[in-house]
Amino acid sequence: MKNNQTQTRMHRLLSSLRLALLLLATVSLGNAQTTSRLTVDSHDITVLLHSNETFVVFANQLLDNDVQVNLKTDSDNHLGLDPTTFWYPAGSTQNQTVVITGQNAGFAQVTAEANAENAQILEDVFVRVTVAKSRGLIYTSIVFGWVYFVAWSVSFYPQIWVNYRRKSVEGLNFDFLTLNIVGFTLYSLFNCGLYFIESLQDEYEARHPHGLNPVMLNDVFFSLHAMFATSITIIQCFIYERGQQKVSFVAYGILGIFAVVVIVSAGLAGGAVIHWLDFLYYCSYVKLTITIIKYVPQALMNYRRKSTVGWSIGNILLDFTGGTLSMLQMILNGHNYDDWASIFGDPTKFGLGLFSVLFDIFFMLQHYVFYRHAKEQSSSDLTIVTEAAQNQGKDESSNDDVTNGKY
Predict the structure, then answer these.
(1) Phi and psi at residue 79, to the nearest 5°
(2) Is the per-residue pLDDT at 293 higher than 60?
(3) Can you say how many angstroms the Cα of residue 169 is from the centroid of all Cα atoms in its chain?
(4) In a 3-state reduction of DSSP, which class is residue 242?
(5) Residue partners of 105: CB distance under 8 A and separation at least 6
(6) Could you count the other beta carbons within 10 Å of the beta carbon of residue 325?
(7) How many of the other CB atoms lie within 10 Å of CB of 137?
(8) Which pairs from 248-257 meet CB under 8 Å and 24+ separation?
(9) What is the pLDDT of residue 18?
(10) Which residues contact 41 (CB under 8 A, 6 or more apart)?
(11) How far apart are CA 330 and CA 129, in angstroms?
């Protein structure tokens, strides 16, 4: 009981500190605020099951009229509110503390009902609430997230090192590289657009009034870094020995289709037929398609060569680590927040992660099982055929020499 009281006091103290900072920020804005309205000290709160958290409702400027605030939630099963109704007096600087009690794991939103006269005053009174079963699972999920972020970020460099050490890119499929650079370029375009361009952020907020921007700084860093690392690998293809390898006509055809989609959607956005946010979504769909198909050329090349020489297994091991932890994080969050619908109701992200991991397993089988005896040699298809023909010619010549009595 004493622990609960202590936690409650700590929550109130933290809420007061947050509120003080917000009030200082409001004062510093001076006359920049032109509309009096109520707001909250935090729009995102995580509360543990059967525990309490608080948020504070306050006015950014003195109100001219009394306002009745009626709080509601889109899921009464997940949380309880106390109080649900209160008056905010005109000309008052009071702070109204609202207690959230976690009842069932999941997600819910708290909003404020208002009549037409007070709608604008209360539009910023909303809180996104996450009810979790365990704080330990939250921290574990965060650790998983950072580990797979690092694994995916580092996964580009084993291939770069292999190319540098061999002074050759033979064995690395050029179709895979071409699809990869296009995919990461479009992914960077999507992330940078939503993270840096204010008009796109406003459009996203208009479509999802109480939603969070899906792009964070680490997303921007990862996509730009992936594009940079892939570009380094492509530059190596022009510097080092590459044999007879080149981008196939099939890859050019696929990229041509993607180019048409991107150019047409950009033209529609430029002509105001669709919004630029929709253009970014179309770019992201192309990126998802590339993620599904990009490993196929490399897998076929390894099969035809009966070798993985020149294809870095370090890249695959790191990608497998990242993909596995990504899926484990989703399963962990599904359990902690009782949110299995995010996996099975909308399986796109989970399915893409699973698809990549299955390809990684196939590549590991190729490297460690199927073609484990493959030797380092010139690895392009044409070179292998030529070497095989030369070896066969040498064998026949040796047989002729034996027949003619030279040995």
Answers:
(1) -150, 160
(2) yes
(3) 29
(4) coil
(5) 49, 78, 131, 132, 133, 336, 337, 338, 339
(6) 21
(7) 15
(8) 248/174, 248/175, 248/297, 250/175, 251/174, 251/175, 251/178, 251/179, 251/297, 254/179, 254/293, 255/178, 255/179, 255/182
(9) 56
(10) 15, 18, 19, 22, 55, 56, 58
(11) 18
- Amino acid code (one letter) for 128: R
What would the pLDDT profile of 348-381 be if each residue is shown by its tens digit? 567 777 888 999 999 999 999 999 887 655 444 4
Whether 48 shows a pLDDT value over 60: the answer reads yes
| Residue indicated by tokens 């907020």 | 205
Q: Look at residue 72 and give its three-state secondary structure.
A: strand
Tell me the torsion sign for CA atoms 378, 380, 382, 388: positive
Residue 265 · residue 274 · CB < 8 Å:
yes
Tokens coding 217: 């700084």
What's the mean pLDDT in 176-194? 95
- Is the distance from CB of 43 to CB of 86 less than 8 angstroms? no
In terms of Cβ atoms closer than 10 Å to its own Cβ (0-12, 13-18, 19+), residue 268 is middle
User: Where do we find the tokens 């969050």?
Assistant: 333
- Asked if residue 258 lies in contact with residue 286, where contact means CB atoms within 8 angstroms, the answer is yes
Q: In what order do the strands lie in the sheet with 52-59?
A: 38-40, 52-59, 96-102, 79-82
Beta carbons within 8 Å of 155's beta carbon, 6+ residues apart: 314, 315, 318, 319, 322
Instruction: Dump pLDDT digits (tens) for 129-180.
Output: 999 999 999 999 999 999 999 999 999 999 999 999 999 999 999 999 999 9
Q: Phi/psi of residue 89, each to 5°?
A: -70, 150
- 54 Cβ contact partners less than 8 Å away, ≥ 6 residues apart: 11, 12, 15, 97, 98, 99, 100
Strand positions, DSSP E, 103-251: 106-113, 126-132
Do 175 and 250 meet the contact criterion of CB atoms below 8 Å apart?
yes
What is the per-residue pLDDT for 348? 58
